[in-house]
């Protein structure tokens, strides 16, 4: 009896594995196993899609000490990375060159209402 139950369970398992998937999720999420949060339709200024801004490294500092150059700030005499405009962070606490350019540009002339409120720097200069 036990052998018969085991045989039936193995037969069912083999049929489930060998059959076509019921809900093929890879068609929903592309070639990714997880959804990245539907970043292209979020109403947000910070997105995981950072390549249009030129950022190639978002999880490490350009200059620093420790894991991902992000535990201690850049020390005197330490050589920074050569492609510093591709890093979001300079070290553990400071944004990088390209991130500062984006922050400065959007502070001077806002692109969204949440960039500067009630006035941006350009509007203040014309008062």
UniProtKB/TrEMBL annotation:
Subcellular location: Secreted
Pfam families linked to this entry: Lipase_GDSL
Protein family membership: Belongs to the 'GDSL' lipolytic enzyme family.
The entry's keywords: Hydrolase, Lipid degradation, Lipid metabolism, Secreted, Signal
GO molecular function: hydrolase activity, acting on ester bonds
Gene3D superfamilies, per the entry: SGNH hydrolase (3.40.50.1110)
Database matches in InterPro entries: GDSL, GDSL_esterase/lipase, SGNH_hydro_sf
Endpoints of the signal sequence: 1-19
Gene Ontology, cellular component aspect: extracellular region
Organism superkingdom: Eukaryota
Protein name (database record): GDSL esterase/lipase
One of the GO BP terms on file: lipid catabolic process
């Amino acid at each position: 009896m036990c052998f018969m139950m085991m045989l039936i369970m193995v037969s069912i398992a083999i049929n489930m594995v060998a059959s076509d998937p019921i809900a093929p999720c890879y068609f929903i999420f592309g070639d990714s196993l997880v959804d990245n949060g539907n970043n292209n339709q979020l109403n947000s200024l910070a997105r995981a899609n950072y390549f249009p801004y030129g950022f190639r490294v978002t999880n490490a500092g350009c200059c620093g000490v420790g894991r991902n150059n992000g535990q201690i700030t850049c020390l005197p005499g330490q050589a920074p990375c050569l492609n510093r405009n591709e890093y979001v962070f300079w070290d553990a606490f400071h944004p990088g060159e390209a991130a500062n350019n984006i922050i400065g540009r959007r502070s001077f002339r806002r692109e969204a209402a949440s960039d500067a409120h009630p006035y941006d720097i350009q509007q203040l200069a014309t008062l």
